[in-house]
Known about the structure:
The protein has 341 residues and is of the alpha/beta class. The protein has 11 helices and 10 strands. The strands form 2 sheets. Strands 3-2-1-5-4 form a 5-stranded antiparallel β-sheet, with helices on both faces. It has a 5-stranded parallel β-sheet with strand order 8-7-6-9-10, with helices on both faces. The protein is globular, with a radius of gyration of 29 Å. Residues 1-61 have low confidence and may be disordered.
Amino acid sequence: MQRCLTRSRLSPIRSGEWVAKRTSIAEYPCFKILLYNSISYYSMVEYDYAMYRGVRVGTKGKAMNTTAMYNEIQALLKRGERIAVATVVKTIGAAPCGVGTKMLLRADGSTSGSFSGAQVDKQVAQETAKALRESRSQIVHVHLDADQAVGSCGATLELFIEVLHPEPRLIIAGAGNVAQALARLAAPLDFRIVVIDDRRDLADPQMFGDQVQVNFGDIPQSIRALEPDEASWIVIVTRGHQMDKNALRAAVETDARYVGMIGSPGKIKNIFRDLLKDGVARERLEQVHSPIGLDLGAETPDEIALSIAAEMVMLRKHGSGVPLKTQHHFLEEVVEATRET
């Protein structure tokens, strides 16, 4: 019978059929790949028996080298996709892969990379998908049966699953005073900022600084060309009713996470009415933040920009927007505690 062997057992798996011949762990090709610093976990006998069975240790059917993996991660994040990356940080037992082995999971469930077996990959993908759904990086343990591991004892993989979100992109349609103030406020809030305008005198990079990308051109066409995704926020602050309507039509055609439009109640109603007549779905227009911003009593361009930035931060951080004073009653607690003493 096949047995789980330790370093001292260099005896045959089946009498007269096979015997381990190496005497030093350094002689094994898996030594550096598997990163075992002690052969107490994975004996030389188990390795040779794995070779006897034809198991390829440390290789993967869908293997990706580190450079290719990181290039794909970067490309996916640039496209605005949320992803999760599972990395082996520790192995126990006769694991089929080594520390540092990675698998990338996309939001659609497809993967890149492998942990040296379809069953193992399925288990890892399930754990990684769960982390992606919860949007929470975590450490998990995946236990492998003997038929999934290299040797006869099974194995355990300790994985660090990191959920990666693309850097949010703020697309500001219009380059007037409110747009300039909003760009200044949003720059330190970890947004990649793109400003669009069809007026050459306003679409001037010198007016916005190095942190802002300024595009000169037709505003609706430019919005579509940027292909806003789930990591994109669109703020429409153009110069007039018709341009706002055309920009909003382009914006609601995208997958942008947030679309907001400045305007008076009358203008907003007219634009919504026109777009509904044009066939834009009511459900999509209901997602538009218009009037835009939080009620701060804002009047100046800087104040309006602050109300817009505050709403974006509130939504991004899942805040309530209500005054913190109304959520806490510290004075009452202190007074009550004083009375009790």
